[in-house]
Amino acid sequence: MREISSISETEAKAIRYILMDIDDTLTTEGKLLASSFSALWSLRAARLVVVPITGRPAGWCDMIARQWPVDGVVGENGAFAFWEIEGQRLRQMLSPNAAPNDAPELAKARDRALREVPGCRVAKDQAYRRFDIAIDFAEEEPQLPLEAGMAIKRICDDEGVRAKISSIHVNAWMGDYDKLSTALRFLSERFGYDDAKDRGSVVFVGDSPNDEPMFAHFPLACGVANVRRYLGIMKRFPAFVARAEGGEGFAEIAATLLSKAGSGGL
Predict the structure, then answer these.
(1) Which residue, among 164, 179, 191, has the nearest Cα to 221 in the 3D structure?
(2) How far apart, in whole angstroms, are the C-alpha atoms of residue 20 and residue 211?
(3) Please, is 8 exposed, middle or buried when counting C-beta atoms within 10 Å of its C-beta (0-12, 13-18, 19+)?
(4) I need a surface site. Which of 65, 153, 159, 219 has the fewest CB within 10 A?
(5) Which domains does the chain have, with CATH numbers?
(6) How far is Cα 232 from Cα 83, in angstroms, rounded to an integer?
(7) Cα–Cα distance between 165 and 148 in angstroms, integer?
(8) Predicted TM-score (pTM) above 0.90
(9) H or E segment at 251?
(10) Are the C-beta atoms of 75 and 56 separated by less than 8 Å?
(11) Tens of pLDDT, residues 93-131
């Protein structure tokens, strides 16, 4: 991984799309910082397409699509995309094989995790989810080590459900989709993005293993500094990394891209 300061002016000027994770990428210790929220506004003012790509639930994503300075949001690790059009009308795009989160396989994986990994619990935002089950190991107290998240994922794998580890949750779902597949479909259908030609116009910013498909796909992918915590369990890494962690790291990346592209700093 290279420091984000090393990105070239040519690379920065080619960027049209800014995609980012939310938890521990836009946020720091669970809070959306003024610096990272201001960075979203600055990126939008530069006429870039801004889209959060998150594991957070449908209920949160409805609010984000309506109230944040973004052009859409992909939620529940790719189950859907929400966006707002003229007249404040919300639109949604569902992944073709997204299944409701009442599947017995998901319930079995959840129950095993709760029984076999002491201290883990169903995420407090589960009530607002439509397609996945989130098991919390590091958002609420007690905060468990990464090894607990890895144990939960192994249980999900054993039960035949898809699962990804974020910095706070293990998200489990049924269906052949992820952050990347839905992000590509959304960009294509909404903005005419052509992945064969336009991949170098996308920056994705993330922090954890559930961002690996995005890191692997986009040559200008970036990590905030806390991505280094997961290098031992990740196979694919972002091309660039910030000096700062969390929201400050995102603001650093945004400021660097805008400066290198000639759009000014934040």
Answers:
(1) 179
(2) 9
(3) exposed
(4) 219
(5) 2-97+177-260 (3.40.50.1000), 104-173 (3.90.1070)
(6) 36
(7) 10
(8) yes
(9) helix 246-260
(10) yes
(11) 999 999 999 999 999 999 999 999 999 999 999 999 999
